[in-house]
Write a structure and sequence with these properties.
With 395 residues, this protein is an alpha/beta fold. The chain has 2 domains: 93 residues, Roll (Urease, subunit C, domain 1), CATH 2.30.40; 291 residues, TIM Barrel, CATH 3.20.20.140. A hairpin with a 2-residue loop joins β14 and β15. It has 12 helices and 15 strands.
């Protein structure tokens, strides 16, 4: 098997370590050697003055949705158009160094279809964790079709998703911002309604996530055992509950989606004034304080954006990561939210998220060092997944 060596490059491993003037060798889809100095290989790439990092994750996206532009969102006219949109979006992420996304609801199970086609055809593209549609109550936030209004119905829908081999089960535990008639703080599911389904998903090795825009909703999700808490403006009490979960050996993660609220607050489109009106004074500071609290208490923070929700674009994960440095994380710690810790959330840390021998050759080459300035993450020259080039900057 032919091997490729990228040499004389700064390597940020994703474990908190940095190797100056290092070399990385991969064969096929696997890293086979990392070290200082020259390594033997068939093909060489000079990485002088450049930096390599693990491929990035965005842990909260909505494939197939479209960011509203010019006052309206673009709904596809048919399933074919929807499929083309999904593929187009998948091809765009690598421009920003993203090699894996955790999808957090898509119509028509479109993410599942695209995931399976890409994998079966061995097409060079991002890794997709599929969720299909979110589980919500009738008339609740994000509910586009059938609602699930009892513990039995939530459990039954969870089992249906497990049967279809979804990677992620998303529960909409509270109302939300982007559903016009929904009240963001309203609680949609109790602990008792969530826990049987969450337990079933855990037994079957599935990732669970909870949309939460209020503290009571976040509390219910934490107590029910949901793996990741999305959006919530956590306080000391809810973070303490998360710490207690961790101490019991039950992993839990925080996906802040800071950029989503920032984008709503800075939106000037008058046709979406209703959306901006749902935001409250101090929302950004409360969300940023939640990041600080989790960071201080050792709760893993995972880079997450709400991409394709109103005014959140593909690639905004790089701005999300930068916002974490304003919450007290160092540049290195901020990078880990989109690499090592994101891979742990997605149960992929055995194969990716860090640059180590035996793991997949998922990496990004940057023209400058993001440890000097986190905004250098935007200077992507090459993105590879499984040793295949997904994006390369033109000269």
């Amino acid at each position: 098997m032919m091997s490729t060596v990228i040499e004389n490059i700064r390597i940020i491993t994703g474990n908190g370590d940095v190797m100056e003037h290092g070399s990385l060798k991969y064969e096929g889809d696997t890293i086979v050697e990392i070290g200082a100095g020259k390594l033997s290989g068939d093909t060489y790439i000079d990485g002088s003055h450049k930096t390599m990092i693990p491929g990035l994750f965005d842990c909260h996206v909505h494939l197939g949705m479209e960011v509203p532009e010019n006052g309206k969102g673009a709904d596809p006219d048919n399933e074919t158009e929807f499929g083309v949109r999904l593929m187009r979006q998948c091809l765009e992420f690598p421009k920003y160094g993203v090699t894996c996304v955790r999808n957090m609801s898509t119509e028509l199970d479109g993410d599942l279809t695209v995931r399976d086609v890409l994998e079966q055809e061995h097409y060079p593209a991002i890794r997709i964790l599929a969720s299909g549609g979110a589980i919500s109550i009738t008339g609740g936030h994000g509910n586009l079709a059938e609602g699930f209004d009892s513990a039995d119905e939530v459990l039954s829908e969870t089992r249906r998703k497990i049967k279809k081999n979804m990677d992620v089960i998303k529960f909409v535990v509270t109302g939300g911002m982007a559903t016009k008639a929904s009240k963001p703080g309203s609680v949609q599911y109790s602990v008792e309604e969530l826990k049987p389904a969450v337990d079933e998903a855990k037994i079957c090795g599935k990732i669970t996530g909870a949309h939460c825009t209020s503290l009571p909703g976040a509390r219910n999700a934490i107590l029910a055992g949901v793996r990741s808490i999305e959006h919530a403006q956590l306080d000391e009490e809810t973070v303490e509950l998360m710490v207690q979960r961790q101490e019991q050996g039950d992993e839990i993660f925080y996906c802040p989606t800071l950029i989503a609220r920032y984008s709503i607050l800075h939106n000037t489109n008058p046709e979406f004034a209703w959306l901006k009106a749902k935001a409250k004074p101090g929302d950004m500071e409360r969300k940023m304080n939640a990041v600080r609290l989790c960071h201080e208490r050792g709760i893993p923070i995972c880079a997450s954006t709400d991409t394709n929700a109103p005014f959140v674009h593909i690639g905004d994960v790089l701005d999300e990561i930068a916002l974490y440095t304003e919450c007290g994380l160092s540049e290195m710690e901020a990078i880990l939210t989109a690499t090592r810790d994101a891979a742990r959330l997605c149960m992929l840390d055995g194969i990716t998220g860090t640059l180590e021998v035996g793991k997949r050759a998922d990496f990004v080459i940057l023209s400058e060092n993001p440890l000097d300035d986190i905004r250098n993450l935007k200077l992507v020259e090459m993105t590879c997944r499984d040793g295949q080039v997904l994006y390369e900057k033109r000269a």
